[in-house]
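Hey L., structure's done. Input below.
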Amino acid sequence: MRSSRVPGFRRARIAAAASLLTLAGTAAWAQDSVNIGAVLSLTGANATVGEDVRRGIMLGVEHVNAKGGVLGKKFNIIIEDSGGNPTTALNAARKLATVDKVPVVMGEYSSGITLPMAQYLVKEGVTHLNIASSSTKIRQLGATSFSLVGLENFGNQFSAKDTWDLGYRKVAMIAPNNAYGQGVLEGYKAEFEKLGGKVVTEVLYTAGQSTYRRELQQMSRSNPDAYVYTAYGQESAVINREAEELGLRKTPWYAILMSMSLSDTPPAIANGQIGMELGSVQGAAGKAYADAFKAKYTEGFKTSYTGYGYDGVLLTAAAIEKAKATTPAAIQAALKEIGAAGFPGVTGTIRFDQDRQRVDPPYDKLKFEGGKLAPR
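Output:
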């Protein structure tokens, strides 16, 4: 009896020891990694953009780790899918902040999703990096939110002057009925009318509709010199197809943020459109990034946002190294210092103003021809 109980006792001790070793190994792995988070639209209407940004982020992580990681540890990013839904994005941010306990969260894409998600992160003291949203309301989020992209005030000035210089004097506009779209419509109109132009029709579309014929017909009745629009990928595909079917493409179409607006539109329909875009990559660093992206994924990036995801990773890594700490407060202080001096990103030099928003962001004038976007 006695001898039969001993092996069981030993087995229990061995199992307990193995369990402790597993836990110790997990703890050691966690201690050897520095984690940050990202919330992206990997499914839903903006999945094309979300995947493009994810690829850029992962390329950034690879670059940082190839250089030795951060603070002598492996750099890692936990990516959550928002599905293009504000509630899902908020839950993802909550998980990253409270379960994964990351000090930095990048994202999202649509301003209407970014704003509530970032408000939560700011309230929790977590560092928020805006890598794609342009609503000017982002400026009001608070002291722990930073923008790597230019906000709408810059973009609206650029697009209004560009359309004026193209000779358009009266335009019809359509944009999504959310924080981003409302900001573009109001801001562009104000800037265009300062120059002497007139927005003759204003339409805010509802996301997810199967058709936008009624809205397009409403716009056509004002006989504009040009149609000015901005729309999310899959919705834009419907708008562009129906504009073609209704014969509206005989009049020029100008897209604000072309890569977003044309990401899901067939090339045959997109051909001939002109517009503006966030400056995607700049200079030698930008070219090196574009080459690395193509080598890694066997195709070039489809949108202008991927470089901002890449820059977000490298900027965060630089801030952690400068802070010599991974606490949100230390990272935020380092970001302010780096942003004041200027950070050499693939999207150009990143500098922050007193509200932690990017100043002098780059923009491009583009056209769609031969199946791709090209400078004009």
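Residues 2-31 form the longest helix (30 residues). The CA atoms of residues 60 and 310 lie 5 Å apart.

-- N.
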